[in-house]
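Standup notes
- HV: blocked on the assembly model, inputs below
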Amino acid sequence: MEAAGVSNATDDGFYEATARQRVAALLDKGSFHEILPPAQRVVSPHLKELDLPVAFDDGIVIGEGRLDGRKVFVAAQEPAFMGGSVGEVHGAKLTGLLDRAARDRPDGVVLLLDTGGVRLHEANAGLIAISEIQRAVFRARAAAVPVIAVSAGSNGCFGGIGIVARCCDYVVMTEEGRLSVSGPEVIESQKGVEEFDARDRALVWRTMGGKHRYLIGEADGLVQDSAARIRAAVLPWLGTPVPLDLDSLTQEHARLALRLEQFGDAQDALEIWSRQGVKAPQDLPGLDHEAFMNIAVPLRNSSHA
Amino acid sequence: MHESLALCGKLFPQGHDVAIEGSLLHGTGKTPGGDIAVLGTLDRAAIGVDLASALASRVLDIVRSHPGRPIVMLVDTQGQMLSRRDELLGNAGYLAHLSKCFELARQRGHRLVSVVYGEAVSGGFLALGMIADQVYALADAKIRVMALPAMSRITLIPIERLEQLCRSSPIFGPGVVNYVKLGALNAVWEGDLAQCLDKAMGSPLEDDQRAARGLQLAGRMQAHPVRQMVLDASK
């Protein structure tokens, strides 16, 4: 698959890139205009109070740019700053961007998510911020601006932001990306290692990773970890909002109910994939992208609304 | 009588047919202003794929059968279900679906009011409770992200320091008073609950005012101005 449009940034993938590298690689060269850049120094007052280091962008880059010439708004969480976690300022920047999108109606909003969820150092303020982001996603959608969530980063997409991602019009993941509410460590620490062994990386990825999420319909797109491919996946969704109405939610409800009926008693992802018709489910995690897609596309359950 | 049904008795002295079905609470309450749909959880329910789906099903039923009828969420949840099975099946999708169903109800003119009467914790509170237009709590309700000892373990901030910070700032500590100061709760309900509900139903519907309230009450000083700066930034 070739990427449409022109992006001249070096394409080393998103997994270990910084937020600014991701934005530069996603958008048309030189088109990004950052809102509240680090020079404005809008920082977390709460981290200061704890005598902890602050970031001049509070761990999130937001702004406007072009993607293949189309006007888009972008937010990118910085994985290296407190695990991409959502504090008061971080959250308000994202809420503001979504409300700006509802007002200015770009062709889409792309959220490059990479987060463990609430920043526990700002506990209550972080949780409320995520609820405000969620409501702002719905306002952007009501204005027919598609909101596209990308999970391709090293922190994955967890906690309340996992829920927010699924409130968006579209979710695209890479195999390395993960999407869940409770992360492996949280489940293990609360329920014990018998419930979830967080050190079992194969278990983590086949339970929460991109391949499984794509197969069961929790992700709309699965691409290799490359900015060009993420760009190409996002492009056709620009200007194409998914309706959020009684019909679409009735259909989504039926799909989710069917998932429970078909897979509700499955013990492991391997069992789900087998029931979906995958002949050698144990081989799926090791397959390269193309070989995986050849099997997954005809068998996967679709998502939406 | 279960505490949730006792609560319904106080909210709806004219009568209600709210019934318990597992961890779910549903029915209709009578008020002078008309019928109100009631939906909720009980016994500190953890919200996983099954409960989220059952709740969403009820929301869609209300939207289909009773256009415009206000919905009261009665919240008692320890948070999202922490289990391998629920994450395997995609709890994010189920909790998001529940949120979308409430959002649909809102857009179709249903007033959404929630009342935290037990616990309200993190992801559970996000999908059931905070999604409402107006959020209230009983004075003895418990709202939090995480208990202080766990927060101390993860943030590596000594618990004594956290306890000290809780006294000076509403953002760290659990509790309804903190959530009022932060703008996330409209009010704490005490006394005549039917009167509280009646007053809530009569108040004007507004967009999300939580950040503005947080600023006004000096509990959350940045959320509102930062959002406004983003809106006002030049192109």
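- HV (later): unblocked. Chain B touches chain A through 75 residues (CB under 8 Å). Chain B has one domain: 3-206.
- Next: hand off to the docking folks.
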